[in-house]
Amino acid sequence: MSDVVRLIENNRRWAAHRTRVDPDFFPRLSRQQAPQYLWIGCADSRVPANEIVGLDPGELFVHRNVANLVLHTDLNCLSVLQYAVEVLRVRHVIVCGHYGCGGVLAAMQDRSLGLIDNWLRHLRDLHHEHEAALAATAPEARPDRLCELNVMRQVENLCHTTIVQDAWHRGGALSVHGWIYGLHDGLLRDLGVSRSSAAEVRRSHRVRS
Question: How far is the C-alpha of 19 from the C-alpha of 85, rounded, in Å?
Fold first, then answer.
C-alpha cells in the first residue's frame, strides 16, 4: 500500500506547486478545456503524451491503446475522435507511435498470446502486407520500420472515418499527422504523412465524391 500512498503524496506536492506558480491554474482549468490537439498514442508508460510535447493539462486531448491503433470497429477510439473534432473543435489529430513498441514486436512473433491476439490481428495483417519489403530490410531495422508503417496506416484509417471527412466537408481546419517517438533519445519524428483535406484521400475511400 505504501507505493500507492506515495502517489497521493506526489499529487499533493504537484498541486501545491502548480498553485504557487499560478494561483488561478486549477480554477481556470475546471471552467473549460479547449485543446487544439488530439493525441492518439500507445499505452506504453514510457511515452507520456503531455510531457514529451511540453503541454499543460487541458492543452492535449489524449486517447491511448496498445500500439496506437485506429480501428473502424473501436467505438472507444471513434467516440474520443468525434468528441474532439465536433465538440472540442481540435485543429490537429496526431497519431504517435514509438520505436520499440511491444505491440508491434508481439505482432511479428509467430505464437499465440491469448486475448490480445484479436487486437494484434490488425498489426499482423499489416506485417504480412509488407512482408516482402521488410524482408529486404536489415533484420535489426525491421521492427522500427513496422512501427513507422503502423503509424502511417493509422493516419489512413483516421482519414477514412466519416468523422474526419465530415469535418473537412464542413470546411473545418483539421489536419491529421503521423509521428513517431524515439525511446532512445526522447525525440519526435514527423513521418511526412499529414493530411488536411478529403482531396488527399484516395477516391475509393472518400465518404463523398
Answer: 31
Instruction: State the Cα angle at 190 between 78 and 154, rounded to 5°.
Output: 25
- Reported as a single tens digit per residue, the pLDDT across 69-91 is 999 999 999 999 999 999 999 99
Q: Is 98 marked active-site?
A: yes
Q: How far apart are CA 81 and CA 190, in angstroms?
A: 21
Please report which helix (H) or strand (E) contains residue 158, including its range: helix 142-159
Grid cell digits, residue 105: 514486436
Of 63, 77, 96, 98, which one is the catalytic site residue? 98
Nearest Cα to Cα of residue 192 among 178, 180, 205: 178
pLDDT in tens, 144-190: 999 999 999 999 999 999 999 999 999 989 999 999 999 999 999 99
* Residue in 17, 28, 31, 46 annotated catalytic: 46
User: Is 124 part of the annotated catalytic residue set?
Assistant: no
* Cα distance between residue 195 and residue 158, in whole Å: 10
CB half-sphere exposure, 189, CA atoms < 13 A: 15
